[in-house]
Amino acid sequence: MKPSLVLKMGQQLTMTPQLQQAIRLLQLSTLDLQQEIQEALDSNPMLEQQEAGDDYDNSDLPGDQSGQGSSEAAPEGSYSDLYESPSSTAGNDQEEGDWHERIPNELPVDTAWEDIYQTSASNLPSNDDDDWDFTARTSTGESLQSHLLWQLNLAPMSDTDRLIAITLIDSINSDGYLEGALEEVLQSLDPELGIELDEVEMVLRRIQQFEPAGVAARDLSESLQLQLRQMPADTPWLSEAQRLARDYLDLLGNHDFSQLMRRMKLKEEELRPVIELIQSLNPRPGSQIEASEAEYIVPDVIVRKHNGRWLVELNQEAIPRLRINPQYAGFVRRADASADNTFMRNQLQEARWFIKSLQSRNETLMKVATQIVEHQRGFLDYGEEAMKPLVLHDIAEAVGMHESTISRVTTQKYMHTPRGIYELKYFFSSHVSTAEGGECSSTAIRAIIKKLVAAENPKKPLSDSKIAGLLEEQGIQVARRTVAKYRESLGIAPSSERKRLM
């Protein structure tokens, strides 16, 4: 086949650098966005944070910056309250005053943002930065192993026993239990040391006296016995609880209370405080030592009721107010191709696009949050049982955006309501048909199941089939396996495990 040149015309979707940056900022959480803004402030001299009491005109920012939030179920205040720009009188002459008119609004679509500008995230802090706290950014919570090793260093012990203790501590999992048999621990030690199994057992008992109580146990029964052993001797029903944890823990796990009373020769009113003492113990003692960092949630949107109407507004305290520095912006000169002027022009363009992307993010977030509140007024007024079915397509159609955009907006974004703080994705749920031909949200069904279980007779808990029957009486047609799925998602045990002595 002879090669030839063929000219074709076609269309394809491309992303400009501005759109790439806007999408990246859109999917950031509030805490990540705060860090991104701080890095932009540190790296771009054209950007600065507005101080309280400063007042500048918005006329120099691209696009419409004067849009106000609507009232009912809509934002209060303007987006210009968050992001400000200097007036066009910042320069001393016409050549410096119209800097905003000479910067192009678009870049070629076949370029990436990183090809034009170095991302602020790549700017690592220097060692002489007094505001950069190395400990706050690199430290992690204390692990269970480090907590046990700290106690080991305070315990008088021979070098051989210390080696055995370190090996045992390495074999303890995050729940506080010893993984593997002592014989396996013994095999991992150097045979030339001549260590016997009795020595390993003795060191294990030393470690079991460490905090938290119940650590280094080989099973649940041993862990409960260790915790009971550290209680005061005058604790009521202590001996009976130790006997139950040692000999009859399987009966308690199966909720076979009649057999348990027969074996322990206790009456029901006597067995009840014994079980309560057992239930006061921690089945996962290692969980008391958390190795993970605390996660903080900053709400992006605040919903409140005023004069009988639900109002939606951005959390203005979460994001600092930005503006373009008028002094540096006035240094940008026309028809000057020097390296310094080119650098300032690029920085100015990046600052303008950054502010515009932030405004676009907040406008989109506000539109989506407003529509969510419009759909879920029943939840705000009456609780989870009044939650309506809602999917991404419903919000996307209401605001005129793509579902992928709605998914980015609702991920890691939180709404503060009088009922608590919820992720925006919480308000989306599938639906189940009702007997009257309507729809019921899966979130509302979970709330009803939780309410039914809370009001059940502890001696005769409701089975999944019985719950499905009660829901059908309310006009909600749900299969038994669906009830089981919702029950498990709520962390509710099966009926056989919910049986209690009352």
UniProtKB/TrEMBL annotation:
Residue span, RNA polymerase sigma factor 54 DNA-binding domain: 342-500
Keyword Nucleotidyltransferase annotated: yes
Domain RNA polymerase sigma factor 54 core-binding: 134-328
Keywords (A to Z) from UniProt: DNA-binding, DNA-directed RNA polymerase, Nucleotidyltransferase, Sigma factor, Transcription, Transcription regulation, Transferase
Database matches in PROSITE patterns: SIGMA54_1, SIGMA54_2, SIGMA54_3
Highest taxon of the lineage: Bacteria
InterPro entries: RNA_pol_sigma_54, RNA_pol_sigma_54_core-bd, RNA_pol_sigma_54_DNA-bd, RpoN_core-bd_sf
Pfam families linked to this entry: Sigma54_AID (PF00309), Sigma54_CBD (PF04963), Sigma54_DBD (PF04552)
Record-annotated membrane-spanning stretches: none
Location of region: Disordered: 50-98
GO terms, molecular function: DNA-directed RNA polymerase activity
Known role: Sigma factors are initiation factors that promote the attachment of RNA polymerase to specific initiation sites and are then released.
Listed PANTHER family: RNA POLYMERASE SIGMA-54 FACTOR
Family label: Belongs to the sigma-54 factor family.
Protein name: RNA polymerase sigma-54 factor
